[in-house]
Design a protein that fits this description.
The chain is an alpha+beta fold. It is 23% helix and 18% strand. The protein has six helices and twelve strands. The protein starts with 16 loop residues before the first helix and ends with a helix.
Amino acid sequence: MSQYTGRPEDPTRGRTADDTDDLDDDFDDDYDEPRSFGATILAGLKELVIVVVLAMALSFVVKTWLFQAFYIPSGSMENTLVKDDRVIVSKLTPGPFDLKRGDVVVFEDPGVPSPWLGGLSETHSTVGGPFHDALVFVGLLPEDSENHLIKRVIGLPGDHVQANGDTGKIKVNGVEITEPYVKPGDFPSEGKKFDITVPAGRIWVMGDHRSDSSDSRWHDDGTGATGSVPMDKVVGRALFVVWPIDHVTWLGVPERTFSQVPTATTPSTKPAPKSTVNPSQGATPSVSATKAAAS
């Protein structure tokens, strides 16, 4: 049985002259002359500009609402963080996620009663001018922390935080806490005595390097109102160190340190009971009033 081997199909067979011309044009399109070197360079530059613009826009969105890199300018958080470390900060805390005791947070200088950074001697200088500032603005370079601080949350709103100023441990809501993150050789309060209740909407913060940290202890007037940091000043929670490579680590929350600390009690909103003291005898000042007068 023989196998038929016909001639190859003629592409013009059964077509009109106009159809044949169109086919020739298609073949001509497939064999256009290659782009010139200049046109290729121009096309490549256009693609590069588009990619860069999209990358900067994405970086700006991430930096504004999700994550931002920060530069550590001092040693107030040693040995957890050291000078020149770069950290990634989540802007979802506080927000969708609540702050916890033990979180390391970045916040803007409260400026009360005076700028916290007023006495900072070690400042970070950068080179690059407007170009550097633009890269920081869109989030492609870490924030230089010129008006930001980084500390650890010790007290949340309503917490009673106290220290005897000696070598004893800090108490939160009456429970002594053991702080493994404090720099070896430092004492928990480093000679600074305080006994405050953190006001609503604020947090009490301290550096891990207690002997070299200008934190809530040193800016408070004894009431907790000036030393604590407003929540709206908090930029976010530091998640991990990304640079240098040998310092890369996750900044977890020391759960054991605060695991036994009870939730802060909400002050009663009931009216105070009327005094039954005879007006002629005079009223005896309460303990809280005595403390307020002494402070």
